[in-house]
Amino acid sequence: MLKAGVLGAGHLGKIHLKLLQSSERYELVGFYDANPEYAQQVEKEFGYKYFSNVDELIQACDMIDVVTPTSFHHDSAVKVLESGKHLFVEKPITVTVDEANDLISLSRKHNVKGQVGQVERFNPAFMAVKDNIDQPMFIESHRLAEFNPRGTDVSVVLDLMIHDIDAILSVVKSEVKSINASGVAVISKTPDIANARIEFENGCVANLTASRISLKKMRKARFFQKDAYISVDFLEKAVEVVRMKDAPETPGDFDMILKNAEGESKQIYFDNPEVSANNAILDELETFADAIENNTRPIVNLEDGTRALDVALKVIENFKSL
């Protein structure tokens, strides 16, 4: 079993602590938090071992899970990598792309693995259809959440939209050509609602909307490609795959047939993969253990996290140019 430690015991940090303790792939060594009084309360309530010295915790572990506020990701991750330990870091990977590239360089220098917590890659609905997504040419995503003060220290783009940015980048095998975006700060000091149009070199267009001031929750993405439409509901863990093929010469009584302007007949049929229930955060942590033990590429490596951050920051930069 890999010995694991957690930096940061806030809301998400406590979830990671619970899952690492329950995992059969890790031995939870303990945690560090910058607030000693709070950390001692967590230790007393949950029984996780509190390390008052971050360096001692890092040295006692094989892998460190960084779940601190984003502004501390870089400094915390540097300590981990320079100690030759494997790094799991929550999204967004860092505050700037330069900081992220610094982590990539250090991971290569010390020959250790790094993974970024882009948890929607492990959403069972997305996992069920990702292999069906083949050269999508139009993508639309909506990620709407009710207002919660937690996380408003960063723009809604880095808080919410980055999930969809990462998922889209993982299936569109092309470089970003241009970005147009707008955002509005309604309650917070940073944008609470944003829309971005991302155009790729291969002609694919992605239209993303994210809001943290919605009256209802929604986390959906729709992918349109040649002869297929794929819908992913990240919130309800549901998928819908609608395909089209040439209609048979003699359609059945219940076949759904459409005829286009050119007179070609197409048959519509549904091909919905099974969605298997999982714990996405546990899966991302345990697949990282696989990557470490088998010396394979993490599913969301540091380069992936950096690319998602780069696009997210360019979306935010687009706001300033309005």
UniProtKB/TrEMBL annotation:
GO terms for molecular function: nucleotide binding. Residues 150-216 form the GFO/IDH/MocA-like oxidoreductase domain. Pfam families: GFO_IDH_MocA, GFO_IDH_MocA_C3. Residues 3-117 form the Gfo/Idh/MocA-like oxidoreductase N-terminal domain. This is Oxidoreductase.
